[in-house]
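Table 4 source record.
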Amino acid sequence: MSTQTIIAAPLEMRPQPSLLVEQPRIDLLPDGQPLNHRQFKIRSADSFVRRSSASLLLKHRYAWRGYHTVSLPADQTANRITLTASEGEQVIGTITVGLDGAEGLASEDVFRDQVEHLRQEGRRIVEFTKLAIDPLSGTKRVLAALFHVAYIVAHRIRAYDTLIMEVNPRHVRYYERMLGARVLGETRLNRAVNAPSVLLTLDFDYVMTQIGEFAGQPERSAVERSLYPFAFSLTEEAGIIARLMAQVPVPSRSLN
């Protein structure tokens, strides 16, 4: 994946500017309304500048929560793909897609039994890690966009079928409601950040169904209280897949 823009999208403003400054919790990200002439772009963080900016955002957000500092490795690898959302040159969000392979998965340090059980079931596992959203610019639209492109990389292009994520226990209900995730492993200590974590899982077939039903229809968010109405439309998704496939030819399943 190259650093060229994967997709650009309108940035939605926060209706209550003080809320996230005082309590920048991921579950309080607002729906927002369109803010004219402002956009954010999703890119692969495979340049030194972009990886440094993403690492700085991670450092600030994890430090605010009282976690041990985390950072990105110096270089991107085939199985560790970091995406960024940026407004101009400012990184306002980041997520890393970790594909199961020779390197293993970060979640195995805490939830080895659960991860191995999924493998024994024949699941192709991917984990989403190192998620951070800038509290001043982040909206549900930004979070949904990062998640959607990460899903495209992992499932639509690389054909992995099962997602796992370690989250803080206080965010479990949020991801259950907003993504349809379910608990796979109960609270344990994540030694890397020195904080409690719960292992969640999500089938990508379910994500595909929800995107097909709700994506690109933010007006339905009043009834469908999930992130899916804020995801990209199926037309936009097709464009993302085409651009990513053109950048790096990788083994993929049929997209029909």
